[in-house]
Amino acid sequence: MYDNGMVDRWHPEKYPTKWIDRISAPAGVFFDANPEILNNEDIDQMCCGELNENQTKYGSLVGYKELDEALNDYFNNH
After folding, report:
1. In the 8-state DSSP scheme, what is residue 8?
2. Per residue in 48-73, pLDDT tens?
């Protein structure tokens, strides 16, 4: 949210329950199946990285497709 300008001094960080629920389930599946990815570098890459690079690096991992869709839904609807 910070990287795409959704959060700044006039627009504080918010986490609506609807989206927490929508994102947490696929995030849990993804990180449970791929615990080595649960680090700052990979999370930053998934959030800020280029689409094709992310697909190449994470696309074949269990749960990534569903997590990616949930995050895309969130950012496309805000």
Report:
1. B
2. 889 999 999 999 999 999 999 998 89
Residue written as token pair 């990979």: 42
Q: What pLDDT digit, counting tens, does each position of 3-56 carry?
A: 556 677 777 766 778 888 999 999 999 999 999 999 999 998 988 889 999 999
- Give the C-alpha separation, 44 to 38, whole Å: 10
**What single DSSP character describes residue 49?**
S
How many other CB atoms are there within 10 angstroms of residue 63's CB atom? 19
What is the spatial distance between Cα 17 and Cα 25, in angstroms, rounded to a whole number? 13
CB of 29 closer than 8 Å to CB of 66: yes
Give the span between the Cα atoms of 28 and 37, in whole angstroms.
Answer: 12
Is residue 71 within 8 Å of 23, Cβ to Cβ?
yes
